[in-house]
Amino acid sequence: MITCWKYLLGSLPRREVRLIEEHLLTCHDCVESAKRVEAYVQAMRAALNNRKRKPPLSSTRDTVSVLFTRTAKSPCSRSVSAR
Questions:
Q1: Residue 3 is part of which domain span?
Q2: Which of 18, 70, 73, 83 has the fewest CB within 10 Å, making it most exposed?
Q3: What whole-number distance in Å separates Cα of residue 51 and Cα of residue 75?
């Protein structure tokens, strides 16, 4: 499985890439595993890219304000000691 990760991340030597690609032509199980790993890698890259983009401070402040207002109005907003 580590070889699959290295293949999908582009960190294998050309000779090994060729061998992996030949194997993928005949092994359905490895193709399915590679698809799952690729989906995971893409999801992690997307999450990292989204994390790098920070919202403007005013937007963050407005969002937090709305969340606190909703929490205060919620019927479940009891203090910890009341439980």
A1: 1-10+22-50
A2: 83
A3: 32
| pLDDT tens figures, 50-79 | 776 665 556 666 666 655 554 444 444 444
Q: What angle do CA 43, 67, 47 make, to 5 degrees?
A: 10
- What are the C-alpha distances in Å from 14 to residues 5, 18, 56, 57, 78? 15, 6, 44, 47, 61
Tell me, yes or no, whether 4 lies in a domain.
yes
pTM for this one?
Answer: 0.52
Find out whether 23 and 30 touch, Cβ atoms under 8 Å: yes
- Is 81 contained in some domain? no
| Distances in whole angstroms, Cα of residue 54 to Cα of each of 48, 50, 65 | 11, 8, 17
For residue 7, how many other CB atoms are within 10 A of its CB? 21
